[in-house]
Amino acid sequence: MNRAYGKMLGVGRALGGRVVTNRDLEAVLDTSDEWISTRTGIRERRFVTEGESCVTLAVEASRRALEHAGVPGSSVDLIICATSTNPESMPSVACLVGEAVGAAGVGAMDLSAACAGFAYAASVAGAMLASGVANRVLLVGADEMTSIVDVKDRSTGILFGDGAGAVVLDRGDGSSGFVDHILGADGRMAPLGRAGHPGDGRRPLYQNGREIFRFAVRMFPEMVEKIMARNGISPDEVQYIIPHQANARIIQAAARKLEVPEEKLVVNVDRFGNTSAASIPLSYPDIYDGLEPGRYIITVGFGFGLTWAANLYRI
Ligand code: UT7
Fold this sequence. Notes:
Shape: globular
Helix content: 25-40%
Distance between the termini: 13 Å
Structural class: alpha/beta
Bound molecules: oxa(dethia)-CoA
Number of strands: 13
Number of helices: 10
Order of helices and strands: EEHHEHEHEHEHEEEEHEHHHEE
Low-confidence stretches: none
């Protein structure tokens, strides 16, 4: 059995303070609850309120994850934050998280791979733990999507939400943690999705939804099959598949293609919308207590770039 690195000690999440339902959007956009829920599966999402930002969400999720793990921030020796919506180009969100949780002085960096960001960052965390460069990693995915989306544009404004998820990973004894990763990117497909900097109203997020939808429906099951095959894992050994949450229809299509029961695929897009790099770690608090040691979790990300990534994790 392959050694695994990155035993989960605790998880946490934080969400924008304002709940925005489809009905709320009906009042301000030419849209309907029926269109949004049937085309995307989204019922509501969270937007930041006054004083909240990508940074405050990342800090709050991290504090909760550390508290859940029962370890102090000072015990962490590396912080990685996947995000595309740091309100400032510098310093990194990870640096500010370190300061806020009592881990100032340790390595801290942001990683940008759009909606595949958390799955990418997990691979860096796994490699740092496997190499012994780090012994305990605080891994965060945080995005304030309302800072780059035109919320008055019905084609994108209904899709996204603000949130952050964090997980504390220990090097462990080799029995639990990341076993394998897949990473990919293809800049030839960059025109399919772009966004300016946070607050840059001139270049709000644009996407060719149909093309990215097709790409995701093809790539997501392919990655799951590939990572299971090359590690000799059967679908029964996989307790959960946690995909990036862009659209419930993408997740349902993947479940059909993979011939796995839909319950195996974790869904939060109905409650949180598309939270980009936060969407995968936002799932952990919902499943953590029921995780069965020895079984596997596969996380799958896909996003602008285009980028894609998957992780195989032994519980
Ligand atoms: O997160 C990382 C990357 N992103 C993704 O993975 C996104 C993947 N794509 C998707 O999830 C879907 O393509 C969307 C949810 C973005 C769009 O759904 P769709 O079924 O592909 O719809 P569409 O863009 O083809 O639009 C269909 C129709 C259009 O009207 P016509 O041209 O057929 O008359 C749109 O104008 O729906 C219209 N429409 C809306 N109607 C009501 C678009 N947005 C809305 C809306 N309310 N909010």
